[in-house]
Design goal:
It holds the Pfam family HamA. This is Anti-bacteriophage protein A/HamA C-terminal domain-containing protein. By secondary structure, the chain is α/β, with parallel strands linked by helices. It has one domain. It has 12 helices and 9 strands. The strands form 2 sheets. The protein has a 7-stranded mixed β-sheet, with helices on both faces.
Length: about 290
């Protein structure tokens, strides 16, 4: 499946038995963090993020502008954009496509009932083909400026989303949105069939979690050198541990068992979330027009 060229640098990718800890960084140019360049890159992913599989197959020189504009208009159409989460979902989409070569299963945002209405449920539904079967990737994200608040809120949300009734209802909604023309449609429909035990689904599923935060290291750095890489990894190490410990403790308290799914945690350190959101909004409005 074609995709835009990768822009973010993978500055950390640690493996553990419970999932990976990864970090992506936009880097620096001429002494400044690449805020506008990152915003440009995010816009390149809009069609894949917001359109259906059938529409993506039909993109060509004759309709590329029209479909890109449609994708931009689906995201939102309001000037009250400061606390919206769509760009966080888009960053999650980009991150797992880049790091894990996932395949988008559905575009939940494509099925909005109202342009400015937020979409409930998992923030990403992708798959990975492994050993003749599909692995389901159901993602969560928090596009925040504070890593502690992001960890607290995403852990609470994951616990809620792993309730049995919630999962079964979510799987029904996902199946209803699968494009029949998508090559893996039958396999995913079978995996999410209501007659299958969640225990079986969990054996072929994982949760990628993407969190952003305003980084002290990024703010006090002007180039991507060894010192920066060492400092950014140190800054994130305690947050990775806190995220995993909090999630596992909350899950065991709620369900009286260990977390049955692999969780991959991805951080994107920012110079300033407000500045990035402003740039993203400006470029989105330009595409819509």
């Amino acid at each position: 499946m074609n995709h835009p060229d990768y822009f973010l640098s993978l500055v950390l990718h640690d493996h553990s038995g419970k999932g990976d800890d990864s970090a992506l960084c936009a880097g620096f140019e001429r002494g400044k963090w690449r805020n506008n360049q990152l915003a440009d890159h995010v816009m390149e992913w809009l069609p894949e993020f917001a359109l259906s599989h059938s529409e993506l197959k039909e993109i060509g020189h004759h309709n590329a502008v029209r479909l890109t504009k449609k994708a931009a208009r689906i995201i939102y159409q309001t000037d009250k954009y400061g606390s919206r989460g769509e760009f966080g979902e888009l960053l999650l989409h980009i991150a797992i496509r880049q790091i894990y070569k996932t395949i988008p299963a559905i575009s939940k945002i494509y099925y909005k009932s109202s342009v400015n209405k937020t979409v409930e449920g998992f923030d990403a539904v992708h798959v990975v083909k492994k050993d003749q079967h599909l692995e389901l990737w159901i993602g969560e994200t928090k596009f925040y400026n504070d890593i502690t608040r992001a960890i607290d809120d995403v852990c609470d949300e994951i616990i809620t989303h792993l309730e049995t009734d919630y999962l079964k209802n979510e799987f029904i909604l996902i199946r209803n949105k699968i494009d029949p023309a998508w090559p893996e449609a039958n396999s995913l429909n079978d995996l999410l069939d209501g007659n299958h035990s969640l225990d079986e689904v969990f054996k072929k599923a994982c949760i990628p979690v993407l969190l952003t935060y305003d980084s002290d290291v990024v703010r006090n750095t002007s180039k991507s050198d060894d010192e920066y890489l060492d400092n950014i990894r140190k800054e994130m190490s305690a947050a990775f541990k806190k995220m995993r410990m909090k999630l596992e403790k909350k899950y065991e308290a709620q369900f009286k068992e260990k977390l049955p799914l692999t969780v991959h945690v991805i951080f994107i350190p920012l110079h300033e979330k407000v500045a990035l959101v402003t740039a993203l909004h400006s470029k989105l409005k330009a595409l819509q027009a």
